[in-house]
Design goal:
Number of strands: 15
Cofactor: Mg(2+)
EC number: 2.7.1.180
Protein name: FAD:protein FMN transferase
GO molecular function: metal ion binding; transferase activity
Largest sheet: 8 strands, antiparallel
Enzyme class: transferase
Number of helices: 6
Length: 284
């Protein structure tokens, strides 16, 4: 029996996005999912004028501002949650260019959608935005009745709806970022999202920005590491993989202990095995 597949490929958020939707007549749903991702790109980008750059202009000038963009408001509410979830290790406001200012200096009221900061800073949704966009796309697909789909934003962020169209979990092999043919781990996903963060490769060309800086001491993470996180939410998965990447040993252990079969940190300077693994914790 053949399986109907709807495939959409496009560029958004600075990367290649692919939507693979299986079963039924879901052409309109695929268009809605693409629109959801493009709306996040338009709202959160810092590479062209956007609601986020308007907020950043105000925060850098020492002014508070009321936000009227619903996507940005939703993202900031989610940021509050993941900042707490990661013990502050995911911080979209940390930036060495601004003297170590961070999310702790941000005052955001979800009821009024007003944001201000105690000192000049800017927001950077790298390490969160792609996963958040996939969440919104998945929501659009589920609303349309989709029960099987695989969405990806680049090679580091993906989300799946339901089971694989042939049954069972969606199988993924996470490649070693610097050794051809080597695999770090194999995972099966059902109704989950996955994020990979690494200090090795093309995604490390702006080390002063949030996704490469440890909030506790504002130090750039330079060790060869790779973090993998799986969660029901793409935004949370991205925040968790970012947090694992910048965490010190104690912080990484706390995060991994929260979901030891869904959070992994690899030391790429040594063997391709988790540096923080509950089964090996006492030997690490």
């Amino acid at each position: 029996m053949s399986i109907v597949a709807h495939v959409e490929r496009f560029v958004a958020m600075g990367t290649r996005v692919e939507l693979h939707v299986f079963g039924g007549e879901f052409a309109d749903a695929v268009i809605a999912a693409r629109r959801a991702i493009e709306e996040v790109d338009d709202a959160l980008t810092i590479h062209r004028p956007s609601p986020t750059t308007a907020v950043n202009d105000a925060l850098l000038a020492g002014r508070g501002v009321a936000i009227d963009d619903p996507v940005l408001i939703e993202a900031l509410i989610a940021i509050q949650d993941v900042h707490a979830l990661t013990d502050g290790l995911f911080d979209p406001a940390i930036d060495q260019r601004f003297g170590g200012a961070g999310w702790g200096d941000v005052e955001f009221d979800p009821r009024t959608a007003r944001i201000a900061a105690k000192r000049p800073l800017a927001l950077d949704f790298g390490g969160f935005g792609k996963g958040f966009a996939l969440d919104r796309a998945c929501a659009a697909l589920r609303d349309a009745g989709v029960v099987s789909a695989c969405l990806s934003a680049g090679e580091s962020s993906l989300a799946v709806i339901g089971e694989h169209p042939l049954g069972g979990g969606w199988p993924f092999a996470i490649p070693h970022p610097s050794i051809d043919g080597a695999v770090l781990i194999e995972l099966d996903l059902i109704d989950e999202a996955l994020s990979i963060s690494t200090t090795v490769g093309a995604g490390t060309h702006a080390p002063e920005r949030a996704a490469m800086v440890r909030p506790s001491d504002c130090a750039t993470v330079t060790a060869a590491r790779c973090a993998v996180a799986v969660d029901r939410s793409g935004g949370r998965a991205e925040a968790l993989s970012t947090a694992l990447l910048v965490a010190d040993d104690a912080g990484a252990r706390r995060l991994v202990e929260g979901a030891p079969t869904r959070r992994f940190l690899y030391d790429l300077s040594q063997e391709a095995a988790p540096t923080v693994d509950v089964a090996r914790m006492h030997a690490a």
